[in-house]
Design a protein that fits this description.
With 205 residues, the protein is an alpha/beta fold. 60% of the residues lie in helices and 11% in strands. The chain has 8 helices and 4 strands. Strand 2 and strand 3 form a beta hairpin.
Length: 205
């Protein structure tokens, strides 16, 4: 569990309070990381094997068999290191790559969780991936028509600052509170409003 029960309740309450006055459907999604990065770890291991082989070739005379043995030892050693220190791969990988993986995962979850299938097309997903220090707010068609992306981008930047400080609870609550006025303005609650999506925090494994 990433958030304790009290933290989950605070976020759920904030969503519930907002949806009393707005027809928008908000969903809070949090995950520890957006990928296992096994493929990336494998590529890094192969790179180190070739790099080490290149160094060994010039520093020491080796037979083909000896070189292959060194390559195997290096490959196994690096993979064991990554297995025991899983966050090491994340530290090595470029930020752009990690953010691309997190963004792709966020979009997959928007569809998997049914946010793209609401009748009103007014769903909003607040997505946080902690290890990548990544935040994305994805909105459905009707929200996108009336509220510019610039508003959400500003919100995301402030949210990321809180995630980097490991204060993602405060980031969630601030983002929800900041969204409240503009959502009520453009999407006021309707008499026949139905809550199509859960207000509970969704933690992805």
């Amino acid at each position: 569990m990433i958030l304790n029960e009290k933290e989950q309740e605070l976020i759920s309450k904030e969503i519930e309070n907002l949806e009393r006055f707005s027809s928008a459907e908000l969903v809070a999604v949090i995950t520890q990381k957006s990928s296992n990065y096994k493929y990336a770890g494998l590529l890094i291991s192969i790179f180190f094997v070739f790099f080490s082989s290149f160094i060994l070739y010039f520093l020491k005379e080796l037979s083909i068999l000896e070189l292959l043995q060194y390559q195997l030892l290096i490959f196994v050693g690096i993979n064991l290191l990554f297995e025991n220190y899983k966050k090491l791969v994340l530290k090595i990988l470029p930020q752009n790559y990690k953010h691309q993986k997190a963004s792709l995962y966020a979009k997959e979850q928007f569809n998997n969780l049914g946010l793209n299938r609401t009748k009103t097309k007014q769903a909003i997903m607040f997505f946080v991936s902690l290890d990548e220090k990544y935040v994305e707010i994805i909105t459905d068609k009707e929200i996108s028509k009336k509220i510019p992306d610039e508003f959400w981008q500003q919100l995301v930047q402030e949210f990321i600052d809180d995630v980097k400080k490991e204060d993602f609870l405060n980031g969630y609550l601030k983002a929800l509170k900041t969204s409240k006025a503009i959502l009520i303005q453009h999407f006021p609650i309707q008499e026949n409003d139905k809550n199509e999506l859960s207000n509970e925090v969704i933690e992805l494994k």
